[in-house]
């Protein structure tokens, strides 16, 4: 898929104020500082479409971007940033839960995971919650340029092995690097396939 146009549409904290749910929509989420904004910028070929920050936890709203005038890419607040206050974390959680459970045109949630770390409980628990609520998602491992090919494979296997304790099958996984543009075609081709094969009710 070629992205010819990517434009910011709106930011808000209320799912009811999101754009009309008449287009395919793909949201990106992960722990704070996992590289969401960098990945979105890499996928869209726009260096500053999504705002990157040195300090984690800066994305606090639902950010909608319209791609090729056809479908939406969404940057969601990160989860699990320890330095945010308990009340702020609660607000993020409500924004995230409301969006994920109420957005009818959400075709797939891309869960970003830092490939440099061993499986973290917070990521596993979040994906478990998605599974319990029937939310379609895939895993997107970030910062893969920091790993060797064998380490990348072991990273995916570690997550799959842990998830198989409670899952019958594990979700699809992509290995990406915003710096090296690794995985760009694979992720966009997957979105293109879903655009063609999944209809919005």
UniProtKB/TrEMBL annotation:
CDD domains: YihA_EngB
Needed cofactors: Mg(2+)
Pfam families reported in the protein's UniProt record: MMR_HSR1
Residue intervals of the EngB-type G domain: 22-197
PROSITE patterns reported for this sequence: G_ENGB (PS51706)
SUPFAM superfamilies, A to Z: P-loop containing nucleoside triphosphate hydrolases
Domain of life, source organism: Bacteria
This protein's UniProt keywords: Cell cycle, Cell division, GTP-binding, Magnesium, Metal-binding, Nucleotide-binding, Septation
One record GO biological process: division septum assembly
InterPro entries to which the protein is assigned, alphabetical: G_ENGB_dom, GTP-bd, GTP-bd_ribosome_bio_YsxC, P-loop_NTPase
Molecular-function GO term, any one: GTP binding
NCBIfam families: GTPase_YsxC
PANTHER family recorded: ENGB-TYPE G DOMAIN-CONTAINING PROTEIN, MSS1/TRME-RELATED GTP-BINDING PROTEIN
Cited function: Necessary for normal cell division and for the maintenance of normal septation.
Similarity comment: Belongs to the TRAFAC class TrmE-Era-EngA-EngB-Septin-like GTPase superfamily. EngB GTPase family.
Protein name, per record: Probable GTP-binding protein EngB
Name of encoding gene: engB
């Amino acid at each position: 898929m070629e992205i010819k146009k990517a434009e910011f549409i709106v930011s808000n904290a209320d799912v009811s104020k999101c754009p009309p749910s008449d287009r395919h929509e793909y949201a990106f989420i992960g722990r704070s500082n996992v590289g969401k904004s960098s990945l979105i910028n890499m996928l869209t070929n726009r260096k500053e479409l999504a705002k990157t920050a040195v300090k984690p936890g800066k994305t606090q709203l639902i950010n909608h971007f319209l791609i090729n005038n056809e479908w939406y890419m969404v940057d969601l607040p990160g989860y699990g940033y320890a330095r945010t206050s308990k009340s702020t974390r609660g607000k993020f959680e409500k924004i995230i839960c409301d969006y994920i459970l109420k957005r009818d045109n959400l075709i797939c949630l891309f869960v970003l995971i830092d490939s440099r770390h061993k499986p973290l409980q917070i990521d596993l628990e979040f994906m478990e919650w998605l599974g319990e609520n029937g939310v379609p998602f895939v895993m997107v491992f970030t910062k893969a340029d920091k790993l060797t090919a064998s380490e990348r494979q072991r990273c995916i296997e570690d997550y799959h092995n842990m998830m198989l304790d409670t899952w019958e099958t594990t979700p699809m996984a992509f290995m990406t690097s915003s710096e090296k543009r690794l995985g760009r075609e694979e992720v966009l081709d997957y979105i293109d396939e879903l655009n063609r094969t999944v209809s919005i009710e």
